[in-house]
Amino acid sequence: MGCPIPKAEALIQMLDDEATVPFLIRYRKNIVGDWSPDEMRSFKDHYTKAKEIVQRGKFVSKAISGIGHWTPAIQNKLDCALTMSELDDLYEPYKPAQVLSKFVICRNCGLDRVADQILQKQHIDLNRFVDPESEHRKTMEDVKMLLIAFISETMVCRMADFPRLWREENWTFHCSKLTRGKVVDDKENFKKFYNFRRPARYVRADEMLAMNRGGKKKILKVSLTPRDHLKEDVRRAIVDCFGLRNLPENDVGDVLSRAVTTAQDRLMKKIPKKIQTDCTRSAEATAIQ
């Protein structure tokens, strides 16, 4: 980016101290200079990626050392790597056997086609997919768990097309003081947020950014709680989307019912994360204006 070293060092120090882009643009003009918010964000992104590469390099070095293959030559290559892909290429020959997710195992076993048929509520005898000699399909429950993982993933992806489930008005921010360990609140006064509750759509930009800072400093616990009956609405949306009312009382019906529950639980964890991310982005944009 053509950034002078003294300026880069000063900005890095402030970013490590949890300074946000809006704060730097507004209150640290003497260091930021004539950079626009986009340029400041670009610098922060580059620095974040650089830190991730350094951390990944340390992990790879430790992993290779742990299996007795570390050499100064390998370490030199790790130190010279400038991208994650370079580090991954160096690590590839030393990686342990990969632990596959149930979703991937289901696809590798050819059960993804069976999952699609089940979603269409076709009658299928699941017993014929049980194989006591197979690593992943020894029992009927093994087969069901693979199918549930695949079908629930399909359901979660499809629910992205239902914006009413992702609205801010469905959620309320809760903020409280962390009680575990010794809490030091020496730079900012977070007392306002020790017992804070407000609908997500009404949280101001400065409040959102302050809660994030308190959370990163482990002074505050920030969470989102859903409105009454939202979980039931999520389940109803899944059922209606895939036409799953009046399920048959057999193995196929059991798989579908459990897949709906799994997708419902995953969405109730995924939606608030997106709400918090969206609120943070909106707050940062507002703070810069």
Tell me what you see in this structure.
The two termini are 24 Å apart. A three-stranded antiparallel sheet has the order 2-1-3. By secondary structure, the protein is mainly alpha-helical. The mean pLDDT is 89. The protein is built from twelve helices and three strands, in the order αααααααααββαβαα. The protein is flat. The protein has two domains: 5-94, Orthogonal Bundle (Arc Repressor Mutant, subunit A), CATH 1.10.10; 100-289, Tex N-terminal region-like. The chain is 58% helix and 7% strand. Residues 7-64 form the Tex-like protein N-terminal domain. Residues 175-289 form the Tex-like central region domain.
Amino-to-carboxy terminus distance:
24 Å
**General shape:** flat
The CATH topology name of the largest domain reads: Tex N-terminal region-like
Structural class: mainly alpha
Question: Regarding CATH, which class of the largest domain?
Answer: Mainly Alpha
Q: Give unreliable regions as ranges.
A: none
How much strand?
A: 5-15%
The main β sheet shows up as: 3 strands, antiparallel
User: How many structural domains?
Assistant: 2
- The CATH superfamily label of the largest domain reads Tex N-terminal region-like
Radius of gyration, taken over Cα atoms and rounded to an integer in Å: 25 Å
Helix-residue proportion: 55-70%
Name given to the CATH architecture of the largest domain: Orthogonal Bundle
Count of runs of 4 or more consecutive helical residues:
12
The SSE string, one letter per element, is: HHHHHHHHHEEHEHH
Mean pLDDT: 89
Task: Please provide the count of β strands.
Answer: 3
